[in-house]
Amino acid sequence: MAASIEDIKKLAQITLRDKGFYSGNIDGLWDSGSNNAYADYMSHLSEGGQQLGEEGALDEDATIGPVKGVVVLDPGHGGTQKVGGSSPNNATSPSGVLEKTITLDMAKLIRKELNQLATQRPGSNLKVHLTRTSDENIGLADRARVAKAKKANVFLSIHCNGFNGAVRGTETLIISKQNGNVNVEQDRALAQRIQTAMVTTLKRHDPAAFDRKVKDHQRLGVLKDVHLQNPNTNSKTRACLAELEFIDVPAVDSLLNTGPTAKTVRKDLARSMAEAIIDDLEANN
Q1: Is 192's pLDDT higher than 60?
Q2: Phi/psi at 3 (nearest 5 deg)?
């Protein structure tokens, strides 16, 4: 039986996402996000001196199967006092929205999107946990230990940047091998999926969004392998820290908090990050 146009579009979306180019929901509805992902992928091929089709054939039998795994989402900061190296709040938007509030809101949105995506895949067994669900602070090591206790496959710490009210950009951080990371390549692959999803989504809503890339020369207590139990197990938790944007910039405050489409932007951002996490779980099955 010949594949339908919808099936072909779904396959194209899966293929683009598998290659690290966020292409919208896997629903066969080709939208502007799909067009942007395709354009980015074609540019990537051109930079490598390739043409479409030279990078490998599409898998005609690709299907959307069940997703399985454990995800721990860590909303950065919280509470009113510093605890175990974790400050209660760092960045604040011009309208007064606190980083700790944004990170908790985003974690809850990502959890919702992950659960919705799992329900669309019969046979899925996806468990999603948050290190905090209210305005409380938890020490950095204890946040990582939640991932250890839950036997997490993926640990994502969510933060926002702030500097001088002008600098912009989205970045994702991991610990380097030199700083003791025992599974740096797996962490980098997860981080790149998250980074691509965030940047692609934000650029769709704001062309001024800026890609600050994945950075690995970091010393981050919340991602320490010793707290994640990675040195002592064969099933290592893949971990990274996402800096959504510089929320002290007025344009970013409007984009994420106060503008007329801010709610949509946050939902789209959560959806793309959830899909990136599922992509990572599938790639490591």
Answers
A1: yes
A2: -70, 145
pLDDT in the model for residue 217: 78
CA-CA distance, 185 to 159, in Å (whole number)? 22
Per-residue model confidence as pLDDT tens digits over 97-110:
999 999 999 999 99
Q: Domain 68-283 is classified in which CATH homologous superfamily?
A: Zn-dependent exopeptidases (3.40.630.40)
181 within 8 A of 225, measured Cβ to Cβ:
yes
Burial (Cβ within 10 Å: 0-12, 13-18, ≥19) of residue 205: middle
Q: How confident is the model at residue 61 (pLDDT cuts 50, 70, 90)?
A: very low
Q: What is the 3-state secondary structure (H, E, C) of the chain?
A: CCCCHHHHHHHHHHHHHHCCCCCCCCCCCCCHHHHHHHHHHHHHHHHCCCCCCCCCCCCCCCCCCCCEEEEEEEECCCCCCCECCECCCCCECCCCCEHHHHHHHHHHHHHHHHHHHHHCCCCCEEEEEECCCCCCCCCHHHHHHHHHHHCCCEEEEEEEECCCCCCCCEEEEEECHHHCCCCHHHHHHHHHHHHHHHHHHHHHHCCCCCEEEEEEEECCHHHCHHHHCHHHCCCCCEEEEEEEEECCCHHHHHHHHHCCCHHHHHHHHHHHHHHHHHHHHHHCC
Contact 67, 79 (CB under 8 A): no
Alpha-carbon gap, residue 220 to 240, rounded angstroms: 10
Tokens of 171: 């970045």
- Range with the poorest average pLDDT among 40-54, 85-99, 219-233, 239-253: 40-54
Domain ranges of the chain: 1-64, 68-283
231 vs 229: CA distance, rounded Å:
6
Q: Is the pLDDT of residue 54 over 90?
A: no
